[in-house]
Amino acid sequence: MNPFDLITGDEKKDLETILFLYGSALKKMNTKIEILEEEFRKIHQYDPIEHVTSRIKTEKSIARKLRREGRDVSIANALRFLNDIAGVRIVCSFTSDIYKIADMLSEQDDVKVLLIKDYIANPKANGYKSYHMIVSIPVFIARGPVDVRVEIQIRTIAMDFWASLEHKIYYKFEGAAHEYIKDELSECAKMIHALDERMLALNEAIRQLEGKDEE
Ligand code: 0O2
Questions:
Q1: Residue 126 Cα: closest atom of ligand 1
Q2: Which of 63, 71, 140, 158 is most buried, by CB atoms within 10 Å?
Q3: From the CA of 9, how far away is ligand 1's center (Å)?
Q4: Is residue 170 part of a domain?
């Protein structure tokens, strides 16, 4: 079933329905990530995940995004056009962990990968780096399974640090920050990239000294 099949046209009721569906999808996804993390820790004796956060996009933020895209604000349009009503962010130590986690999630039978945006291989012009996956997972309700989309963002601590500062600046200046600030952010993105590479190389050297093969 598609979430659209549950839409009645009563916006208040429909909002409750989608919040319930997307909230349930997030619970499922968080449990999956927890299990994978524990299994990974047991097999490889290290934890690739630093921390995980998840959120349901607020009504205000849903409306703002629809307006930004030039669309009418409605539950039906949110369902049709927004991929990130439910979002999970996984923050890792090393770039190599990002792809391991993405593969582990993609291999789950009930996770369908709909779209991948690899802003690590192809950073945005402003320097933004992160690995984004839009997946759908079934939420089992009394009427049957409903396929619900979840956006998963996977990035390193350094990338996350940069993205949260850039996000704050973007909203503070409503996208029109001074050139100096944009240049500084771009420089910081380069430094963060170099830091990620050095930390990864250092970690690999340590693992070799410990006699652990890189998985
Ligand atoms: P907010 O306020 O963080 O929720 P699509 O999902 O493909 O239909 P979208 O949403 O443009 O289109 O996809 P994309 O590019 O994958 O971006 C999804 C989210 O990633 C954004 O959601 C941001 O959270 C984050 N993101 C993308 N680009 C940037 C960036 O340049 N800087 C920062 N700091 N974050 C970014 P929202 O809804 O745009 O914003």
A1: 31
A2: 158
A3: 28
A4: no
